[in-house]
Amino acid sequence: ESQNIDVEQLKFDEFKINKETNLNPRYTFESFVVGSFNELAYAASLAVSENIGNTYNPLFIYGGVGLGKTHLIQAIGNKIADNPKKKKVKYISSEKFVSSIVSGIRNHNIDIFKTSLSSIDVLIIDDIQFLAGKDKTQEELFHLFNYLYDNQKQIIFSSDQHPNYLQNLESRLKSRFSQGMIIDIPKIDTESKIAIIRSKLLNTDLVLADDIIQYL
Length: 216
Known about the structure:
By secondary structure, this protein is of the alpha/beta class. Helix content is 45%, strand content 12%. The chain contains 9 helices and 5 strands, in the order ααβαβααβαβαβαα. The protein has helices spanning 7-15, 39-50, 69-81, 94-106, 110-118, 135-150, 171-177, 190-201, 210-215; strands spanning 59-63, 89-93, 122-126, 154-159, 181-185. The chain has a 5-stranded parallel sheet with strand order 2-3-4-1-5, with helices on both faces. Helix 4 (94-106) crosses helix 5. It starts with 6 loop residues before the first helix and ends with a helix.
């Protein structure tokens, strides 16, 4: 007998993603490997998690693939969400943000989505570069940003490059991104790569010789 499979539910079950915040609990400051290349981004992220809406707002972290941007911005969210003060946190990928806006427009219920985000304390949007060329989504983000910022809510973005170099992105959004702290995570050094591999091995039963770790 055939069964309907909820793909999103499977994702939540597999990674134990928090359904309310969309955060992966594995992404914490404790599990983040700090090196000389990312210590500034780490320090700024930690500062934001301890004083939301006032320190570095918005926080904009950019860098290449695999440098820990997603881990870091979710670590902020997890630390805030675990605080007894129980602030409302929402992590959302830019693709999900776009699809929600498009769906809201199509179904004439976009206000429901906008209201759900305007009521939170911390908004985290990953890979903001994917909003390029999507004018309606950028317009909605602009208004949402203004509302959250004016109400001292924390806003956090990640991107693959500095906002000034993002193509097909409205100038007014770039201006908003630049109001707070913009931090680059540069290319990783060899020592930090080795430290990350050793850190990952601590969570497994796998043992690797030093020459294999060096090769990796």
